[in-house]
Amino acid sequence: MAAGRWYGRDILDGAGGQAVARPARESRLQADVTALVCDLRDGWTGRWLALTAAYVAVGYATGSALALPMNWLLHYMLAQARAVLVVTYLPLALAFAANAVLGPRARLDGVASRLTSFRFLGEFILATVAVHVTLMVFVNLKLWIPAINERLYDSPLWRLDALLHFGVEPSAFATEFAGDHGLLPALDRAYLLFFPAQAIVPLLFLIAARLRPLRGPFFFAYCLLWVVGSAMYVAWPSLGPVYYWPGRFPWLDQAPYAQQLQELLIRDYAAFRSMPGAHQVKMYYGVAALPSLHVAVLALFAIATRPWRALSIALWVLTAVTFVGSLALGWHYAVDGYLGVALAWGCWWVARRIERTRSA
To answer: Where are the domains of the chain?
Structure first.
């Protein structure tokens, strides 16, 4: 067996999934470097980066065609990277503290060993770069939607929602029900749980023993989801129920976070449409409804964490709460959420299909 293939099948690698002992004479650093290089050459890390590079090329080509600059928001990227670094290495500090206090009973040597390995550090940096670069291109493309495709499809989506639900308009029904029963404040806060989940769950695929074997397909599927999601936004632009029929959402004064952000987003959207060349890109701005990527991302997390049953169930619950919140707060049509879950399953299927093909 070739050296590259051999190192691609160690116990921590998602590409092979087989436990193979390294020769005792080889140092840990040499093994880590060799494994990382092989994974860059013909493993999952190389695939993440290739997908990200292709997406960057599409972003620049689109910006060039529209005469719009690609903005990278480096200050935001660096701030996020520092926060992720702190969250990642907090378990390391806890492991050392527990080992110092409890000794062998702590059983955290494996965590400490993993987080101090060169391979983990390399994978952590490359995964962080792939995810952040993908998100930056996505943010630019989402903002450019009105310049790429001026049409809006809110009216057919509203009618489709009613048709699929036997005449009931899901977003209007959800906001009325939540408003009548005092649920909007809780949904308003719960909707924001997407952001810590988006930061923490990907890290678990690098740290947690149950999830590390799936880290390759996961990061590929995660980046693919944002790529395909942005393409769907451009192909079928829509603003969302609260912008299409604001009179059906009179209770949103009970949801201050959503209400404030909705006002900021539509103001920014109108400013871009009036002067696209002079507009400043802002993180998480832009208005697009189909599909719901909040629901899609959380559904992908729930699907991919299946080996960790308790976490997967918790993420499915959060996905359901986010879906209901997306309706009640006026962000999305029901079909946006359904398509988001389908997108998550599709991206995960593609990633696992590639894995099976490479392993055959």
So the answer is: 150-359
